[in-house]
Write a structure and sequence with these properties.
Layout (H helix, E strand, L loop, with lengths): L2 H10 L6 H7 L13 H11 L11 E6 L2 H25 L7 H16 L5 E7 L8 H18 L2 E2 L9 H8 L7 E8 L31
Antiparallel strand pairs: 1-2, 2-4, 3-4
Helix pairs in contact: 3-6, 4-5
Length: about 220
C-alpha cells in the first residue's frame, strides 16, 4: 500500500460509527496490544479533540504523543510508582469478601495498565495553556472526551488517567512543556485486547430531574 492509499484508508476509518452508539460503548480499555498505531490515526483522534468548545474559542489544548520505547519507559516507571502508592488502600479494602466484584475487576484492569504502560504504543498527554494563572480544564476535558470518542470510532483502545500528575513537574519538563502549559491528563492508546461495549451504568431515571431536584429513598425507582 502506497502512502497516498494509506492516507485515504485512514481518512475513512471510523467515519460511519453512529454518534450515540459510540458514546454508549466507549468504555475505558486498559489492556492494549503492543502493535504500533499509525501516526495518521493519532493525528485523526487529536483533530477530533480540537473540535471541543472553549471559552472565547481560545483553544488552549496541546497534545504530545510519546511513542518511542525509551520515552514510554520513562513515563511508565514514574506512573507505576505513583499508581501503586495510590491503589494500596483499595487493594487492602478488596481483601474483604464483601468487596464488590465489579470494583475488583476495575482494580485489576488499572493494575494491568500500570504494570504494562510501557507496552502501550502511544502515551498521549493533553496539556493546556493557563489563563490568569489557572488551567483551562473546562476546555481540556471536553477535548479529552472527543479524543476518547474518536478512538472508539477508529477502533483504538484508550482510557483517561491523571496519575502521572504525581510526577507532573518532572514529566512536563521532560515533555518540553512550559510552566504555564501543564499537562492535565494521560491517555494510553493502542489496539485493544478486549472489546468495546456498554459499561454498567445506573438508569438515567435515577439522576434526571425536571424543574427541581428531589431526593429519593433507595427503595424508590
Amino acid at each position: 500500500m502506497d502512502e497516498q492509499a494509506a492516507q485515504i484508508d485512514l481518512a475513512a476509518i471510523g467515519e460511519d460509527v453512529p454518534l450515540l452508539e459510540g458514546i454508549r460503548t466507549a468504555r475505558a480499555i486498559r489492556r492494549l496490544r503492543k502493535d504500533p498505531v499509525p501516526p495518521g490515526l493519532v493525528r485523526k483522534v487529536c483533530e477530533a479533540g480540537t473540535f471541543a468548545p472553549s471559552g472565547g474559542n481560545r483553544q488552549p489544548w496541546i497534545f504530545v504523543a510519546v511513542t518511542t520505547p525509551d520515552g514510554r519507559a520513562f513515563v511508565a516507571e514514574r506512573y507505576r510508582r505513583a499508581f501503586h502508592a495510590y491503589i494500596a488502600p483499595a487493594l487492602e479494602a478488596a481483601k474483604d469478601p464483601a468487596f464488590p466484584e465489579e470494583r475488583r475487576r476495575n482494580i485489576r484492569a488499572a493494575l494491568h495498565l500500570a504494570d504494562h504502560l510501557a507496552e502501550a504504543p502511544v502515551h498521549l498527554f493533553v496539556a493546556g495553556w493557563t489563563r490568569r494563572g489557572e488551567a483551562q480544564t473546562q476546555a481540556l476535558f471536553p477535548a479529552i472526551q472527543n479524543v476518547l470518542l474518536a478512538c472508539r470510532a477508529v477502533g483504538l483502545g484508550a482510557s483517561l488517567t491523571t496519575v502521572h500528575r504525581a510526577f507532573g513537574g518532572e514529566i512536563d519538563a521532560w515533555l518540553g512543556l512550559p510552566r504555564d502549559c501543564p499537562s492535565c491528563a494521560l491517555l494510553p492508546i493502542g489496539w485493544p485486547l478486549g472489546r468495546y461495549g456498554r459499561p454498567p451504568r445506573r438508569p438515567v431515571e435515577e439522576c434526571l430531574f425536571f424543574e427541581r431536584y428531589e431526593q429519593r429513598s433507595p427503595e424508590e425507582p
